[in-house]
Amino acid sequence: MTGSGTEQFDALVRPHLEILFRMAYRLLRNSADANDLVQDICITACEHMRDLAAVEHPERWLLRVLHNRFLNLCKRRRRSPLVAVGDAPEVAEFPTTAPGPEEWTQIDDSLRILELAYLRLDETQRTLLSLRMEGYDMSEIHSITGISKEVLRARLHRARRSLGQHMERIQDGPTDAAVVPESSK
Amino acid sequence: MNCQELARELEEQDLDHMPAALRGLAEASLAGCPESRRDVQLHRSLTALPVPPLSSGQIDEWRTVALREAFVRTERHRRRARLYGIGALALGAVLAAIAIIYLRQPPASKALDTHHEEVKPAPPTHPQFHQP
């Protein structure tokens, strides 16, 4: 099973791992969390290798799994008592999707503001913007997320507006207050 | 292309991924449409956010862990399905045994009839029978 499993993995999953990792990182902005998310998707793919072999676009299938897992992860984090105690900074900072020190050193101030604003968006807005960053058009995003095109247009528009507003607020106020994204509060 | 048309095209597809001809038209219209220009700028800034490179060692690790974990989970599912199957068979056997025992019992109507035969008529209570 392992031999054929390895071959199937290399044929069906491996070619899409880069884009999956990029998407996971764009959504979470944290290497460790992105690694865990991709690992989870790989396990799911191995469990459903027959389904994956039967679909027309394995990449979209994998991205749909990623989207669902990301939504579940965000829900879990919202329910987590560690996140709910927002008053204690040493507790609140641990499970957030905020970038770690390694990530902070790699980006300059303007990008940092953009990143903080991006992390304040809700999970669906982040998914839509990330898919657009990867170059997917409306039809492809519709088939990945299952959201109708009309709703997608409206949400994408709202996501851009919210991102602009968050950036303005972060520029005006202290940046430390913005470390915890809204979706994790 | 006016601003509304440009906004519609940009909603459908990102500027950098448009076909060359359409992209040329859109880029020419951008100068007169500040809102769309801001959206394109924002999109490009987001795309410029750094993403760490992926090493082949990481891919190998994902594969190894995924194959092992998927095998373990599949085995667990199989074992659970086997247990459920055995449980269902056992339950079926118990139900069949109960049904057989129930069917072998004498019918309830017969038992009632015999009871009727044993019932004696009540003694007469009319006052005329008590006269000496």
Features:
A: 185 residues; mainly alpha; globular; disordered C terminus; B: 132 residues; 5 helices; elongated
Structural write-up:
The complex is a heterodimer of chains A (185) and B (132). In chain A, helix 2 crosses helix 3, helix 9 packs across helix 12 and helix 10 crosses helix 12. Chain A is built from 12 helices and no strands. The longest helix of chain A has 24 residues. Helix content of chain A is 73%, strand content 0%. The C terminus of chain A is likely disordered. Chain B is an all-alpha fold and 132 residues long. Chain B contains 5 helices and no strands. The longest helix of chain B has 49 residues. Classes of the chains: A mainly alpha (185), B mainly alpha (132). At the A-B interface, helix 1, helix 2, helix 3, helix 9 and helix 10 of A face helix 3 and helix 4 of B.
Summarize this entry quickly.
The complex is a heterodimer of chains A (185) and B (132). Chain A is built from twelve helices and no strands. Chain A has 185 residues and is mainly alpha-helical.
Q: What's the rounded overall pLDDT mean of chain A? A: 81
* Separation, N- and C-terminal Cα atoms of chain B: 128 Å
- What is the 3D form of chain B? elongated
Please provide the ordered H/E string of secondary-structure elements of chain A: HHHHHHHHHHHH
Major β-sheet of chain B, in short?
A: none
Span from first to last CA of chain A? 44 Å
The arrangement of helices and strands of chain B along the chain is HHHHH
Q: What is Rg of chain A? A: 17 Å
Low-confidence stretches of chain A: 89-95, 176-185
